Amino acid sequence: MVDLSIKINLKRVNLQARYVAREVMRLILMMALFLSFKTFGAEIISQAEISQLYASNSESKGINKVLAIGSNVNVPIEFLITSKGNGGFSLPGLFLIRIYDQHDDAVYFKSGLLKNELVDIDSNGYKELLLWGVAVRSDEETERVIAEVPVVAIIKYDLESKLFKVVKKSEEIDIYTE
């Protein structure tokens, strides 16, 4: 009887160790990928720009920019922050890409703003939108932190349809299609 319980406990420990090892490896690979892009990417919205928005007494909490995606593809965006502390922008084919979330409603971004860059990942001459960071899951009633989860999203411009499409997305990043 004792041998059976020891074997069961060893199996549990082994499964937990494999899960932790897999998650650590995934995090290391994601960090290496993002760090390798850091020197090549152009930041879309910066934390400094968001700080300036909050510092201004303007009712309008928006930033207007033009994203240079590739050869003759320039896309205007208006980044807006709601009164609840959520912020994002639209692209052709995508109704809303939320990259800023300070509103604790079960999931928010650790630093408020996801890291965000335009990077030509596949070397086709057109830049993809790369979003990454840490999402914090919390209990809505107690606001107690349940978990911190690394998140990533890759959004690609489709030359044929002239629309943006989600290539990869963590469930904690809200991206709504039209």
Descriptive notes:
The chain has 178 residues and is an alpha+beta fold. It has two domains: 39 residues; 137 residues, no CATH class. The strands form two sheets. Strands 1, 6, 7, 8, 9 and 10 form a six-stranded antiparallel beta sheet that branches. Strand 7 and strand 8 form a beta hairpin. It is globular, with a radius of gyration of 20 Å. The mean pLDDT is 84.
Brief summary of the model shown:
This protein has 178 residues and is α+β, with helices and mostly antiparallel strands. 25% of the residues lie in helices and 43% in strands.
Report the total helices: 2
* Approximate shape: globular
| Mean pLDDT reading | 84
Look at the helices and sheets and give the structural class: alpha+beta
What string, H for helix and E for strand, traces the elements in order? HEHEEEEEEEEEE
The amount of helix comes to: 25-40%
Strand content: 35-45%
Write the layout of secondary structure elements.
Blueprint: H1 2-37, E1 42-43, H2 47-55, E2 62-70, E3 73-81, E4 86-91, E5 94-101, E6 107-109, E7 115-119, E8 128-138, E9 145-158, E10 163-169, E11 175-177
Antiparallel strand pairs: 1-7, 2-3, 3-4, 4-5, 5-11, 6-8, 7-8, 8-9, 9-10
